[in-house]
Structures are given as C-alpha cells and as structure tokens.
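TOPIC: backbone geometry
CONTENTS: sequence, structure tokens:
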Amino acid sequence: MLNIAKRNVLLFFRDKAAVFFSLLSSIIVIVLYALFLGKMLLGDFPETMEFAVNSWLIAGLISISAFTGPLSAYDIMIADKNNNIYKSFIAAPVKKSQLTGGYILSSLIIGVSISLVTLVIGELYIVINGGSFLPLVTLLKIIGFIIIGTTANSALLFAIISFIKTQTAFSAFSSIAATLIGFLMGIYVPLGVLPNYIQTALKFYPGTYMVGLLRNEFMRVPFGNVEEEVGIDTINELREFLGVNYKWGSFDVTAYVALGVLLLTIVVFYGLSIVKINIKTK
C-alpha cells in the first residue's frame, strides 16, 4: 500500500501542470479579491476589519484546496483504470484492499500538501496586507483541522468516484465539482447573502463544517482586535453572516459538533466504499 501511495504522489508532483491547476482556483480568488471583491465585502466597515476579512478569505481557500487536492489525486486512479494499469496491479501479488488503500493514502498526502501550501501563501498575503501571523497553538489546531477535513473530503470523493469509469466522465465531474465547491463552502459570497433555504441545504455538506472550524481559528485574533471598536453584538452578527458560526434553528453548532460531522463523514463514506469493493470482489 505504501509503495502504491508513494508512486501516486511522485506521479502527481512530477506533473507540474496538475500541481498548478490544483492551486489555480485559490490563486484566482486571491487575485480577484485583491482587485475587486475585497472592497465590495468590506463595504461600510472600517479599514481595521480588513485583517478579519482577509482571514475569512484564506480560511475558505484552504478548504477549497482540501477538496481539489484529493480530487486531482484521484485522477491517477481513473487513468490507471482506463490504461489497464489497475488490472496489471491486480494481476500482480497485490491485494485489492492494498491497492485501494494506496490510492486513498496518496489522495490524503496530496490534499494535505496542497492545503498547507495554500496556508503558507495565505499567511503571507494576510501579513503583507497588515495582518499578523497565526499564534503557534492556533496554527497547530488549523493543521489538525486540515488533516481531518481533507480526510473527510477524500472519503466523500472516493465514494462518488468509485462509480466513475472513464476519464471523460471524471473530467466532467471534476470541472463541475471544482466550480461548485466555492459556492458550497460560502467562499465567493458570505453565507448570510444567500437565501435561507440555500443556507440550510449547504449545512448538509460536510465541507461547510471544515471551513467553519478554520474560520473560527483564523478570525479569533482579528475579531478580538476590533471588538471594542465595533462592539460584541456586531461581531456576533458578523460571525453568523460570514459563516464563521452555524446554527440549526436555535442550536449552535460548536467546534465539537463540527468535528463530529467530519469524523462521521469519514466513517460512513469510507465504510460504504469498503462494502462496495467487497461486494464487487465477491
């Protein structure tokens, strides 16, 4: 399994175009934000809110990378199936479970790596624009959330992609998914701008809880810096409007609940994939 994962990771990072396009969506959003979206989002807020808004943006971009990274990694699995390389592995003394585990592990390594690169780029962007680096404890928590969130995305994607047979179908799915993911996570527009029924629908998507966890950590310091200036009530309204905090009716979704949703996603979707593979093997 480890050799399969190592082979897939090397193949991915050897393809400079694949790495670039995995980061492209984040780069495009940063450029658009710097040119247009930042001023629109700040609106009538004081300039001291720029640190908070930049932090909101970067947390969202990391969440996108935690999705597009594993998605790009699974392209190798589909290519192997279409080029009959998958059958060659099966014919060799390699168990199907080990082969599948190799693809999953490589998707995690690639997804986390791309997300960490986005984190570094994002932190530099925040600091250049007048913000500050994350405290060490906060940074470690964010890395932990990235690993858990990427694993949840990998589990969900593997369950879906296991039904895709051709490179053409996978390319179509990737294009649609990569386009929609920014809206599903409330990256391009704040959650509060969307109609209530769409906000409710988005709360059924596990990635929403990953971005909420990241935003809570990224925005803790910048919100603290402006709390006296804008008031605690305004901060609380902003937290809900920007999708930092979520509610189900009157129930507040805490960090523990969000983590529980992500862990449940991992168990359920990897479990379903294992059952599917075992049934097909029999």
